[in-house]
Amino acid sequence: MSLFFNRISKFTVRRDNARFFSSSLPQSPYLLLGGKKLRDSPEGQIGKHRFLDPTTGDRVYSSEKTVPKELNGQPLLGTSQGWVACLENKDFTVRLTDLYKPWISSSPKVISLPSIGFKPSTHATEVSLSSSDPVHDKDLVVAAKFSEYQLSVCCDSKWTHIDTPYSLLPPSDLMYSKRDKAFYFTSFKGLYMGSLDLTDNELDFQELRLRDQPKIGGAGWEMLDKCFMSNHLVECPSGELFFIKWYTDCIRRQHGEYILMHGITKRFMVFREDEKSKDFYYTEDIGDLCIFLGKSEAFCVSASMYPGLKPNSIYYIGPGIGSYDLATGIVRSFDPPRDSREPSLVPYPYWLNPTNPIA
User: Which residues form the KIB1-4 beta-propeller domain (predicted)?
Assistant: First the structure.
């Protein structure tokens, strides 16, 4: 199977420290916050991107970069394996780029995939890549969700749109398993787990069996029942698969003459897959691991590889930005400072996975 493509070219609350990114620094997960345009050039806009380093809580600025003209104004669909997917609004061509990786100083790569053939019907777009090196991997497969009831797959220079019997859920539940060489996603309410095996291109579903539910009093379950719940899947570096329930509450607040609705993270529940039975067992201990959840593909890293990350934690974006300690349930939230005078080049934040960056 080959894909023909055209190569176009400890969180601290309100911490306001800033530094410029150095390629000599260890490559760790970064939160893409935005960027600012500095000037125009014949090749495209020149600007700097702004990140948050979760190991220190510092803001990090990239060196000056040229945004290729073909990416100007294109909305971001999501991130996977450190690459960002964009959509051309006119012909619905999907492009992959490493432009936003902070350790890429110049000559960003842009890969054009075929047009999907229609305007996406959902704002909850998800993208997942089968490889962290889409430039050189000729067997690259890209999976995406452009509508609620379809799984779209790009390989052999074309998109195939596969109807599913269950509605796919909002962002971050679509993921690629290196262990199984398959794409996974959850069904409505997380009752089933869907998979697309790349060895035979068969779409399959299995019931999600959750064991050892946490001991929560009646009032606790009643509170969670009132929350919005999203379901997520993530694979750790060793190949273990985790299923995550994310509970968020909506708070009503009076602000002068206005009533504001504010989302807040209440709790995460993590279930670890048993390799033999394929059942998922509740756990509050994932050891040295950190899970990153947001508006794109979830990923997992070892905290000991990136000093400053808190092990046994989930780092999340939206609603709110912060980290959650699985053992204690303590939420550490923060609000990155914004400069209203700074026109943003990025509409909303994304976590960037440091896996095998391309220099």
Answer: 64-318
User: Does residue 268 contact residue 326 with C-beta atoms inside 8 Å?
Assistant: yes
User: Is the per-residue pLDDT at 8 higher than 50?
Assistant: no
Does 74 or 186 have the greater pLDDT score? Answer: 186
Instruction: Tell me the per-residue pLDDT of 309-346, one tens digit each, with 9 for 90 and over.
Output: 999 999 998 777 889 999 999 988 766 555 545 545 55
Tell me whether strands 142-145 and 228-235 are parallel, antiparallel or unpaired. Answer: unpaired
Tell me how far apart the alpha carbons of residues 193 and 199 are, in angstroms, rounded to a whole number: 18
Gap between the Cα atoms of 308 and 353, Å rounded: 16
**Do 101 and 357 contact (CB within 8 A), yes or no?**
yes
Q: How confident is the model at residue 355, as a pLDDT?
A: 62
Architecture of domain 6-352: 6 Propeller (2.120)
Residue ranges covered by each domain of the chain:
6-352
Best CA proximity match to 206, nearest among 214, 198, 219, 197: 197
